[in-house]
Amino acid sequence: MCGTEIRCFSLTDVLWSSTADKTIRDPFTQKELTKLEYAFQGRTGHEDILLLVDHDSIFNESFKNKDRQSGVTNSKFLEKVRAFKGIVFVVTDSMTTRLPMEFACSFSISFPSEESQIQRWESYLKAGICEKESFLDLVEQFPMYFHEIDQIARHAKVAGILDNRQGNMTLADIYRTIKKLRQKQSMPLLFGAA
After folding, report:
1. From the CB of residue 60, how many other CB atoms can be counted at a distance below 10 Å?
2. Does residue 118 share a domain with residue 83?
3. Nearest-5° angle of CA 189, CA 191, CA 193?
4. Given this model, what pLDDT does residue 139 score?
5. How many domains, in total, are found in the chain?
6. Which of the pair, 64 or 176, is modelled with greater confidence?
7. pLDDT tens profile 146-169
8. Which DSSP state fits 192?
9. 19/76 same-domain check
10. Are residues 86 and 17 located together in one domain of the fold?
């Protein structure tokens, strides 16, 4: 967009940077700043769009907690949101029913239709390998956006190559890949899978 700079940060880094004592050196001013300060720092000559991506699904939980530490962090964050001259977007999959007052609106992007998802899966598997009902079960059990289907298909294709099938993936490879990737995302941060 003309004269607009889009800056993207991890919401986890921005919210918890001040507590972890992590600083970043601003390339323009050479000052040491926390990621929270750096993310919300305006740029001369640009209207900013700040994109905060919630990879760890902490947005909802961060504003539910009433303990002292998260309250201080949240108030600093919300103070920065109020003072920011640009537009702030938070992308999350943990949508809360009650947004903090600093956020004017929210919208949800739903999954593509089941038929569209089935067609996307069919484009990756050789014709005739699976019946339509198998794809319908897959889509009903694991609804996904197209980029997620593409990612799963790439991983499953690699699994097919490693199993000496010349990259011909099966529905079993897809289910195994989904299970493996979903398990990685849900592992506890400090200690791994139990």
Report:
1. 16
2. no
3. 90
4. 92
5. 2
6. 176
7. 999 999 999 888 887 887 666 677
8. -
9. yes
10. yes
What are the distances in angstroms from CA 109 to CA 88, 95, 112, 114, 134? 18, 11, 9, 15, 25
Which secondary-structure segment (H or E) carries 6?
strand 4-10
Residue 131 structural domain: 114-185
DSSP assigned state of 188:
-
Burial profile 125-158: b = 16 or more Cβ within 10 angstroms, e = fewer? beeeebeeeebeebbeebebeeebbeebbebbbe
Q: How confident is the model at residue 189 (pLDDT cuts 50, 70, 90)?
A: very low
Residue 161 lies in a domain: yes
Helix (H/G/I), strand (E/B), else coil: 3 = coil
Comparison of pLDDT for 190 and 26, the residue scoring more = 26
Q: Do 126 and 166 lie in a common domain?
A: yes
pTM, two decimal places: 0.62
In a domain, 180, yes or no: yes
SS3 state at 54: coil
User: Which residue matches tokens 């530490």?
Assistant: 69
Of 19, 73, 21, 96, whose CA–CA distance to 81 is shortest?
73
Whether 103 is in a domain gets the answer no
